[in-house]
Amino acid sequence: MTKKYMPEPFKIKSVEPLRILPREEREKVIKEAGYNTFLTKSRDTYIDLLTDSGTNAMSDRQWAGLMVGDEAYAGSENFYHLEETVRDIFGFKYVVPTHQGRGAENLISRILIKPGTYVPGNMYFTTTRTHQEMNGGTFVDVIIDEAHEPDRADVDFKGNVDLDKYEALIKKVGADKIPYITVGVTVNLAGGQPVSMQNLKDVHALSKKYGIRVIFDATRCVENAYFIKTREKGYENKTIKEIVREMFSYADGCTMSGKKDGIVNMGGFLAMNEEELYDAARSLVVVFEGMPSYGGMSGRDMEALAIGFQEAMDFNYIKHRVQQVEYLGEKLMEKGIPIVKPIGGHAVFLDARAFLPHIPQSQYPAQALAAAIFVDSGVRTMERGNVSAGRDKDGNEYFPKLELVRLTIPRRVYTYAHMDYVAESVINTYEHREDVKGLKWTYEPPVLRFFTGRFEPIE
């Protein structure tokens, strides 16, 4: 029996026309962009799966909220609405708004990380690790081993922290050298994989034993809550809001990019319960973001974010959001396309090493695959492999076990028909995979090279 997927729990009020370039023009576009999809133009893209960060469709209530933006330089009413909403949903006492998640990462890293310290986490994220390293810290991956195995479909919570790895690090370097552990919920670079509630409890308990803070990367916490509700025993009858609130009771603070599960185009925050940490963040936010009552956001942005968080607590919303991702993943698996399993919450991740076995990782198969998909169909995707991993302090490439291409689904933007088109393109590219060539650098930036680096095919 064919699985039934939930139809869109919304109706379309406004549309944005799309265009698709002829193949010859797409070939020209990707060449001029240095075979980097980040350097292609939006107007040249047919279906944009580059990211779900800030690319969401806001609701009528959110658009209405823009009209009550209080753009006061200090004490904006919209800040107090956002603060009240964050306290209600996440349970933290103090809230510092930022322009987006990396603004919050910058603040927490500058305040807590000192040279010679170590920051464990359940797999790195690009900007998070960069902020940690720029402040003298060393990131240490303490995720479970199964997270690095794309074919392991039998593990429901591949984002879990390996408690033995975590405690071994504590004993090796000393708890005083670990300012906090960062726990992503979900884990982006593992394939959008969730963390179980039990693991969050256990991480919190172990951290408290050694006096270490727990800081969540809350970016896709609503998706994580959905997986807890549908996969973890004892939570099937809990609301999404109840699950989110319990999740964050096991953290001392969080960084948040509201551009994902906040369903907005811009915004984020840093939240915590420690007054001393809050005072430091309020002082520092003025230097890098703006006043403590807007922190890089306009009043209307803060209002839309507060409303977006409230809407994200609706189970029908998040069920459709995750099932649309699942729909695309299932269509690809039916045709034998190698993807990360189980299917994650915000994206389908293609296993580029299995997709393009003739291209060694030193020739960036994920980068080459993202470029090939764009040429095939005008669908823009993102590399999440060796290029994103970058280089260590000695200049050596990391060569991560996961060499992936991320097909990221924006919230409330595309229909199942769009997913059908994407699937057809990926399948067609797979059928002609021998035509895809490896790449070499023509320009490699020193930091976050995947954003602006340029390549050319190896003939």
What does this protein look like?
The chain has 459 residues and is of the alpha/beta class. It has two domains: 23-52 and 315-457, Alpha-Beta Complex (Aspartate Aminotransferase, domain 1), CATH 3.90.1150; 60-312, Aspartate Aminotransferase, domain 2, CATH 3.40.640. 41% of the residues lie in helices and 13% in strands. The protein contains 17 helices and 14 strands. The protein has helices at residues 23-32, 60-66, 77-90, 101-112, 126-134, 163-173, 197-210, 221-231, 240-248, 275-288, 299-312, 315-334, 352-355, 365-377, 386-389, 416-431, 449-452; strands spanning 47-48, 94-98, 118-121, 138-141, 180-184, 213-217, 253-257, 268-272, 347-351, 379-380, 382-384, 404-408, 439-443, 454-457. The strands form five sheets. Strands 2-8-7-6-5 form a five-stranded mixed sheet, with helices on both faces. Strands 9-12-11 form a three-stranded antiparallel sheet. Strands 1-10 form a two-stranded parallel sheet. Helix 5 links the parallel strand 3 (118-121) and strand 4. It is globular. The mean pLDDT is 97.
